[in-house]
Structures are given as structure tokens and as C-alpha cells.
């Protein structure tokens, strides 16, 4: 082995370092549609924070670019390594270290999946509420992208649910930020700075997350609307009612048709209503008492009827579960339908009708289409973009992102910029903010080894 490989093997052990043909294709990509797979030169599988620190020291010394990987379920190319780079896979750092029932927190390693954390916390009657739709996703990956998901309307996104980190700087120093306390007003909040930085500032090796009591009873209400504007008008009315849904989603008619077909769903919606519906609203409620839940379901049903729903359907347990699971897999539905890209723009929720209408118009003008669904409660719009011509698609996305920002929104609500959206951000964002981000990056990572090309386009960081 070369000098670099020998040093890396010395740190993690030869069996935990992969090179050459031993590196499988799985390590070459995440789930982004437009990021070409690329195998790294090395894959290291550390078991401790100290090993991560030594790996980063070695990478800095030899100027080897480093990419962190959890489950590889990201959608922005942030987990795609560089050809001459080191991929640090956290698959061995996958322990739930503690479930603290007194403080309602869990302490986990970054490779723990959401499914594993959910199973462990369920034993204590608690749960971690960040639910981005892919239970095989790792908690560390969620920290990297500030993942959100359908439950964000009630519980917030990752940054609202992470209290502290142990993190390794690219210089090899191990730091702790935050902890089990729910408030801190002591200096800069480094926890929040690292969350959402997509592996460009530091690598989280231990994560302290909030837990909530599990509510035993839930119900899902499905409401088809003949007019998309009515769907969007219903959202603030529901949120102002005090019902506090933990899921509030819109799904356009074509996406719903694809979901129903692919998943073979039986939702009980008559053909006549389905054929005249432009979009659907999905409202999920939860409570610790069945009586109160039933009252809330009745209230939301009456409210939806007043707001223009064609009808209201309370889904039975299996149908509700399957619809929510299918909605979580909407990315795969779009991919199977031949989408050329998937975006997750966020705008103020009252601006969603204006944004979606404009995005569809822009897509049609480019000879393509824009279909999808989204988190209606927080303005996060997920669209499958259909536009085969690469040049036209780039201009289309530029126009869509620019319009979102004009409305007070941002390019990404939860997927991150990664490699696939970094150049749009560089083109459209305030140059003063970009320059400030560069200075922050430089202070954390003076050698520039952490995820070059992510957040900042190649050659600009």
C-alpha cells in the first residue's frame, strides 16, 4: 500500500480500510439524480471519535479530500466522494449510547438509523420526531443536511431536535457543543452552526437528540379539492384552529394517481371525485386519549368541508399507514416516472400557491413539467422536474429558485445544496453572505479537505 493507505490502515485496521476493487459501487453515490457516481480512493470505517480525529489529521497532512457517509440516502450529492478522496463511513459507529428518560434525550452515534433509534426509544415510551421519510437514513446524515420531513409542522426539523454534539474538526481536535440542556446562552451556538453544514465544517461523532412521549392514538384525514388554491387556503385555517396536526401535506392529483397505482392503495375515494380533484390535503392528528382524538377528527372534517373539500375521508389504520408510507416515498415515485431532477424549495406557506403556479408555468414554457407534493404546513415544496434538455433544465431551475427567493424562500428546505444545487446558490445568493460562509469554512477547515465542492462549487471554496 502507498503511504496514505498505510497510515489510514494503521488508524482503523486493515480490515476496516477499503481500496481499489474492494470499494463497492454503493460507496460511489447517494440518491441524487444528477450527481454522477464516483468511487473514492479510500473508504475508512472508524469505530471511535479518536479514530475519526486521526483520519482527519492524516487527510490534512496529505491534502486528501474527505467525505462523510451515513446511509447514503441523501438527495443532493453531498455524500458522493472525490476520486482521489477518503470516504469516512460511519457504519460501525451505530450505537444508541443512552436513552435518558429523566431528561427526555437520547445520545447516539452518527451511523444509527432512524429505524434503530425508533425501536430503542419505543422501549421507553418515547420517540425521536424527525421523520424525513427514509427510516434507513442515519442520524448523522440528518444532522449534516438539517433534515426535516412531514412531522416538522409540529415538531420542527433536525436543528430544533438536536441539543448537543461531539464533533471532530478537520484539524483533528475533538469538541463538545451543547448537551442535555434545553437552553444555552453562552457564546456562539456551534451546535447549530455544524447542523446543516453538510460535512464541510466538522464531522459529528456523537449526537444528543430530544425525545417526546409517544401518543398512543392517531388518525389520518384525506380531503380532495377541486381547486388547488382552496387546498392552500385551507392550510392556515387548520393551523389557526389549534388542532396541531403532526402531518399536513398536499399532494397534486397526478402524484396521488401515481402513488395509488404504484402502491395499490384503496382510499375509498369515488371515481367521480378523484377525476375532478386537482389536489389533496392529508391531515394526521394524534392524541393520548381516543375521545379527544375523535373530537379533533370531527372538527377538522367540518372545517375542511367549510373550506371547499369535495369530501372528507377518515382513513382506517392500514390505509392511513400505507398512504403516509407512500407519501414518504414520493421521491421514488418521481424517479420511477422519469423525473430528471427533484427539488425541495421552501417558501412562506402563504406563498405556496403563487410559487407552485409559477413553477408549473416555467416548466411548461421550457417544454417540460413540474409535479409533486409537499409539506403544506411549513411551505416546503417537493417537485419532480421533467425536462430532458440539460441546458433548458439548468435555466428552468435557475428561474424557479430565483422566484422562490424573490418570495422570501430558499433553494432547499431539507435536502441541502450538496454538489447538485451549489452553483445555483452561488449564482443567486447575496455575495456578502457567500463570502461570510467562506470565511467560516476557512476558520474551521484551513486545509480545505472537508467535502470540497459541497455548498461551494468546485474550485471556488
- At the fold tier of CATH, the topology name of the largest domain is Uridine Diphospho-n-acetylenolpyruvylglucosamine Reductase, domain 3
Structure annotation, total helices: 17
Structural class: alpha+beta
**In whole angstroms, how far apart are the ends?**
31 Å
What CATH architecture of the largest domain do you see?
2-Layer Sandwich
Give the tally of β-strands. 18
Summarize the structure in words.
This protein is α+β, with helices and mostly antiparallel strands and 461 residues long. The protein has four domains: 1-89, Uridine Diphospho-n-acetylenolpyruvylglucosamine Reductase, domain 2 (2-Layer Sandwich), CATH 3.30.43.10; 96-213, Uridine Diphospho-n-acetylenolpyruvylglucosamine Reductase, domain 3, CATH 3.30.465; 217-327, Alpha-Beta Plaits (2-Layer Sandwich); 338-418, Alpha-Beta Plaits. 37% of the residues lie in helices and 20% in strands. The chain is built from 17 helices and 18 strands. It has helices spanning 3-12, 49-62, 114-122, 139-145, 152-155, 158-161, 190-194, 228-240, 253-263, 271-276, 290-306, 317-328, 330-336, 352-365, 390-406, 422-428, 431-444; strands at residues 17-19, 42-44, 66-69, 86-89, 96-100, 105-108, 126-127, 162-168, 174-178, 203-210, 212-213, 217-225, 247-252, 279-287, 313-315, 341-346, 369-375, 380-386. The strands form four sheets. Strands 15-12-14-13-17-18-16 form a seven-stranded antiparallel beta sheet, sandwiched between helices. Strands 5-6-10-8-9 form a five-stranded antiparallel beta sheet. Helix 1 (3-12) packs antiparallel against helix 2 (49-62) and helix 14 runs antiparallel to helix 15. It is globular and about 70 Å long. The two termini are 31 Å apart. 50% of the residues are buried. The model has no long low-confidence stretch (mean pLDDT 95).
